[in-house]
Amino acid sequence: MIHFYLTLTIKSTGDALAVVESPKPWVVIAPLALPGETIRARVYRNARLYSYADLLEVVQPNPDWRDMSIVKCKYFGKCAGCQYQMLTYEKQLELKRNVVVQAYQYFSELPETSVPPILSTIPSPLQYGYRTKITPHFEAPPKKFQKVVQAESAEIPTTRPDWLNIGFNQIGTRNVMDIEECPIATPVLNEALGPLRENIIKNIATYKKGVSLLLRDSLVVPPSESDLTSTQASPEVAINGGAAESSSPSSDSEKHICVTDHKGTVRELVGDKLFEYTAGSFFQNNNSVLVPLTSYVRDAISSRPSSSSLSAPTHLVDAYCGSGLFALSLAPAFERVAGIELSNESIRCATRNAELNGLSSKCTFLAGDAANIFATVQDFPREQTVLIIDPPRKGTDERFIEQLLEFACETVVYVSCNVHTQARDVGQILRKSEEGGGRKYVLESLRGFDLFPQTAHVESVAVLRLV
Ligand SMILES: C[S@@+](CC[C@H](N)C(=O)[O-])C[C@H]1O[C@@H](n2cnc3c(N)ncnc32)[C@H](O)[C@@H]1O
């Protein structure tokens, strides 16, 4: 393959974009470069409308933005996990706000007047040491090694052989990089990673296939009722750019362990609610920001315009509910709560979590496609009902949107880890709701949450009201 080496001037962040003007305008995407920088890059793949390049050297850094002295990870720049460690945390939050602005500008197809000013991004209380789940992986041993093993003349490695990399993907490739520690993961996951790696190295002869490991941070024991009231997390947040301090736990209920079995049970506290879920199933990966996130959604629901003559909402529908994070965190403020989720296992956990938190009498959880929820909540009073949507990255679908519009509840809160599909869906909801000529949905507020510090990802919360 022939590689093209280029000097590029960067125009945007995330995976940075540059435009080569000659012989004809052409977009090149390079990782980790910042606007205003000049970089040397090597093109390694051409798509129909653009090319991908490796960053070889930052020829002219952007001194206002780039500060390599604050990078905390020795793998930064090679590992695909983080993109923003060279930026101050304030700058990261500002860039994430811009991602929300641009997503609604380019993907919602809404007129500017329908999109409210995007509010500042809510920071994560922990900016390092926050990730409660990591999934390092390794490839199958090479055939040559497997043959030697079969011939029983294998030398069992005591140190890691050169071909064995246990870690995460290298930027822009499917090659695994060897990773011994991950500063964005919680302390207990980093403590567990070393012994886990040693065990794999010692037993590598027994592996015939590549493996994806799972490490999840869990509380050791369910806290007792008195612990639940005394360990309520503060919703306050700090921007200090510092690593997570691992405070010494004062009771068993504050001790953490690493769960590696996909079927094992993981326990987490979010404020005064205890959640248990199966390690292999979905749960948000940054516990430190979950109280600010769920409190924000609760406050946004209740802060209706003073002109509204409606009484407070009494019914909550949580579509794509997982093991009940939003449904159960918000349940105390509602008379009835209904959740739906595709995964049977998550629904089993949501039902159990309702019991654990004494909320069974008002909560029901159903396994199935999200759009099926509407048939089961026809008796909910629409003017007092709130719908929360938190779909996977691909967003929701037409069937769900059709039924949402027919259901026509007063408030919809759309939470998303992919603001681009959220913008597309919100645009569709607003446009279609106008078609009826009666009441229509408006986008009341929009703001990013930083669930993933040091990366380019942002969680977005959109609040829609029927007017
Ligand atoms: C981003 S997660 C949100 C889960 C939950 N709200 C939380 O914060 O923990 C999306 C969830 O949607 C579920 N899901 C995916 N497709 C679905 C569908 N068509 N209908 C219902 N749930 C679905 C996934 O299993 C996953 O648990």
TrEMBL record:
Residues 1-57 form the TRAM domain. Gene3D superfamilies: 2.40.50.1070, Nucleic acid-binding proteins, Vaccinia Virus protein VP39. GO terms for biological process: methylation; RNA modification; tRNA processing. Keywords: Methyltransferase, S-adenosyl-L-methionine, Transferase. Pfam families: tRNA_U5-meth_tr. Belongs to the class I-like SAM-binding methyltransferase superfamily. RNA M5U methyltransferase family. This is TRAM domain-containing protein. It comes from Ceriporiopsis subvermispora (strain B) (White-rot fungus). The lineage of its organism: Eukaryota, Fungi, Dikarya, Basidiomycota, Agaricomycotina.
